[in-house]
Each structure stands twice: as C-alpha cells, then as structure tokens.
Specification:
Undecaprenyl pyrophosphate synthetase; binds magnesium ion; alpha/beta; binds 3-methylbut-3-enyl trihydrogen diphosphate; globular; 237 residues; six-stranded parallel beta sheet
C-alpha cells in the first residue's frame, strides 16, 4: 500500500498496553516499554511507506507522573535513548520531529536532546512526527488560555478577536492539522486527556492488541478501513 492518500493525513496514536504486554510474559513493565519503543521505529517507517504525512504519538501523559518513581525514570531514560539512537535515521528519512506537552517538568538533558532533534530535522517534509511528552489536553488548554489572557492584559489581543482559529494558534499543536484518525491500542475505550480540542472531528479506531504487538499489517488494515469512512463534518452529503 503506497501513498493511498492524496492529501494530508494526520494519524495520532495512544500507544497503550506496554505494561500488560510485559505482565503476561512475567517481565518487568520497563521491558514492555522498551518493546514499545521498538514498535515506534516500525510504525514511523510504515507511516512513511503509507503516505501518512503527520504522525502524533502519545508517549507520556501529565497523569503518568503518578506511576512509581522507577517506572517514570525508566521511561525518561528510554526517551533519551530513543532520541540518541534514532536522530540520524529520522533526519535521513525526511522526518521532521516536534514535541508537544509541558517541557518545564522534564530533566534538562532530555529537554536539550528534544530541542536539538527539532532543530536538526526542521527542514524535513516527508513526515511530521510529533511526540506528546508530558502532554495533557487540559494542561495544554490552560497554558494556552493563560497566554491569551496575558496578551489581552497587555492590549495585544482584544477579546472579540478570540475565535477557534486564534485559540488554536496558542496551543502546542498550532502548526499541525487536526488529527484525521486516532488509534488506541490495548482495548481501552477512552482518550485519557489526548488532544481534546483537536479531536472534535477525528475518527477513532480502538484495537484490542497491546502496543508492543501492534504491527504494520494491523496499521495498514486500520488505514484501509478509515479510507472508506464517510466524514461529514456536520454537513449533509
Ligand atoms: C502505555 O503503556 C505507555 C505509557 C503510558 C507510558 P502502559 O504503561 O499504560 O501499559 P498498561 O496500560 O499498564 O498495560
Ligand atoms: C495513555 O495511557 C497515555 C499514554 C499512552 C502515554 P494510560 O495508560 O496512561 O491511560 P489510562 O490511565 O489507562 O487512562
Ligand atoms: Mg495504560
């Protein structure tokens, strides 16, 4: 399946089920996360092959800090490893990498690696890979609202100018189109604070398989099924 879509296609994925994948194999949760990172490499490759223009991956939520200290630390070190090991390949494959979420709570080494990867890949155009790290939709909306409030206070923006388009401009996703399709693995039917503003007209696909078992064929099947959907956006067609 090569470039089956003739225009922008933004796929966003809630990569869930790493812990359960590990549990059922009597492995530590972190082994599941490592296997999950491996899946990311494959799905990025497949996205390029399938003509997906934007891929957004939910890697760590604002609520995930509630997990054990060792799991959080393990995840943070996996993010660093991923950036270090993938940078060159992402650059040569034409992938532009962006990060969304609140960076202020992340450790400085990780922030540096994130900034460097964004700068390194900024001119790439084949695929925009956005990684949501310490991302929460409500947190994003509150941060945008605070920015807007300060602009209004300074007289740089007037209340009547605040439209959905203007509001979107203050979100972390300002330069991204809204997601067309949101996939969640692991059989949970919820969005867990992922892109609430941007997803109002997104299509959803919930799949039972855990993220480390999500493969290219499953991805392809979901994209094919999505292609056949009738998106009406409130219109009568
Ligand atoms: C998703 O897998 C990865 C992150 C949230 C960081 P989980 O770690 O949530 O796996 P389950 O849901 O416990 O199986
Ligand atoms: C959502 O998964 C966050 C990520 C995939 C990073 P969670 O496992 O944190 O979601 P809940 O807690 O089951 O809703
Ligand atoms: Mg989970």
């Amino acid at each position: 399946m090569n470039n089956i879509f003739d225009k922008n296609l933004h796929v966003a994925i809630i990569m869930d089920g790493n812990g359960r994948w590990a549990n059922t194999r009597a492995l530590a949760r972190l082994k599941g996360h490592a296997k999950g990172a491996d899946r990311v490499r494959h799905i990025v490759r497949s996205s390029l092959d399938f003509g997906v223009t934007h891929l957004t991956l939910f890697a760590f939520s604002t609520e995930n800090w509630k997990r054990s200290e060792s799991e959080v630390a393990g995840l943070m070190s996996l993010f660093k490893q991923y950036i270090k090991s993938e940078s060159k390949k992402l650059l040569s494959n034409g992938v532009k990498v962006l990060f969304i979420g609140d960076r202020s709570r992340l450790d400085s080494k990780l922030i540096t690696l994130m900034n460097e990867l964004e700068v390194l890949t900024k001119n790439n155009v084949s695929l925009t890979l956005t990684i949501a790290l310490n991302y929460g939709g409500r947190d994003e909306i509150i941060r945008a609202t605070k920015l807007i409030a300060s602009k209004v206070k300074l007289g740089e923006l007037i209340e009547d100018e605040i439209t959905p388009e203007v509001f979107s401009f203050y979100l972390d996703t300002s330069i991204l189109p809204d997601p067309d399709l949101i996939i969640r693995t692991s059989g949970e039917y919820r969005t867990s604070n992922f892109l609430p503003w941007q997803s109002v007209y997104s299509e959803y696909a919930f799949v039972k398989v855990t993220w480390p078992d999500f493969d290219t064929l499953m991805y392809k099947n979901i994209l094919e099924e999505f292609k056949a959907r009738d998106r009406r956006f409130g219109l009568v067609k």
